[in-house]
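[#protein-structures] MJ: dropping BPM1 protein here for a structure pass
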Amino acid sequence: MADEDAAVEALRAEIEVTRAQVQAETAKNEERRAQLAEATARQKLRRELDEQRMWLLREQRRGRGLESETKRVDEDKDGDYQLQRGGFGQFQGNRRYGTHEGGEQVSCARKIYTEEFVWEIQGFSWLNGVLDYERESFVWSNFFCVGYAKFYLVYNPFGDELWNQRHGSFAIVCHSGNCSRFRYSVFVKARSRMFKAWGETSEGTFLPDSVHGPDVFHSQGPSAPAAGIFGLSHRQLLQSDWVQDDMLTLKVLVSQ
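AK: finished. structure tokens for BPM1 protein:
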């Protein structure tokens, strides 16, 4: 009987010790939860700092671009009011009609401007890493003018959304100016140094910040990536004949 009583007392004593340990661990866990909350708050602040640093880098890059563009405008190398090739005498005003004996001739192409723009993306194999570092989805070119409209090009290695629910790997963007009816053709430089047309010559209505290209499409939700240049993904493109010396060269011909 005495042995049984001793065993019961030992169990009760162990229960009390264990209960005290549970209470101690519970108190420690409260401290740990507080420490976790503080660590989470610090992590959130670090991400906010990362985001602000990213915006700072982006704005600094845009600032350098604006400074460069300002210089080009001051030098009359760019701008909405830049002189066109051939000076004022290249086009014959708004007059589209001509007369000849016994009839009249009308020209709908007299006020058409056509420009060619070549874009080289150097260090092409580093593009994904650079975009990841700068928190960007695509790379874009400098502006170029066609008539009184300003354009730029974008390349998106992921083939996902560019903006305004428009997806694609490559696009021509109308930035500003008189963007109305345009025709455009896209060419890619091969290892043979010859340019090959990608897709047909297309025509569309360009509005400011509208996006156009051979594989551009509209999607309101998640979708498969765009087809890519000649149906190649970015990784496949890197290994193709369209990339020479780690450089992709694109050319567009735009008529307004």
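MJ: nice. The two ends are 108 Å apart (CA to CA).
AK: one more thing. Confidence is low (pLDDT under 50) at residues 84-100.
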